[in-house]
Specification:
Elements (H helix, E strand, L loop, with lengths): L1 H72 L4 H65 L14 H5 L1
Helix pairs in contact: 1-2
């Protein structure tokens, strides 16, 4: 009867260790796939933002060219030149504000993504550490070469009768 209980206990511990290892592996795999998805999403967003910046730069270059041509054409009229200068300053202020807002938004998104990934990686490492602890406890308790009765060879029967 005692041998059967020991045998079932050993089988249950083996099963628990296997389940722990599988769970740790699945959790790590999911975390890594989420991380890859987040990196791909961030790459797509960065490409879209770069396209917007290129378009904004092109528009700004066109606006600057038009402004310069307008200034050259209205050089003799001080009042007209002042009005165009104010318009160019306002456009530059709007462009600068847009750039600051966009940069802040991107920075916030990157920080949030980094925090989320760091937290997920920490959780994964905690589960892996738990699995390694269980594995080491198993090996420490049962050793690497059981004799078929759930005992290490060298232990006497008296210790297991108690």
């Amino acid at each position: 009867m005692a041998w059967m209980i020991l045998g079932y206990s050993a089988a249950a511990l083996c099963l628990a260790a296997a389940v722990t290892l599988v769970f740790a592996f699945v959790t790590l795999r999911r975390s890594l796939s989420r991380w890859e998805e987040e990196a791909a999403r961030l790459g797509r967003e960065a490409e879209a933002a770069l396209a917007e910046w290129r378009q904004l730069g092109s528009e700004a270059a066109g606006a600057a060219r038009l402004c310069r041509e307008g200034m050259e054409g209205l050089e003799s009229l001080a009042q007209g030149g002042r009005a165009i200068g104010e318009a160019a300053r306002a456009a530059a202020g709007v462009a600068a504000d847009a750039a600051v807002r966009w940069t802040q938004k991107l920075s916030d998104q990157l920080a949030a993504t980094e925090d989320k990934q760091t937290r997920r990686l920490g959780e994964t490492l905690d589960w892996m550490e738990l699995g390694v602890f269980a594995w080491n406890a198993w090996n420490q308790h049962f050793g690497s070469a059981p004799n078929g009765h759930g005992r290490k060879s060298g232990e006497n029967a008296e210790q297991h009768r108690r």
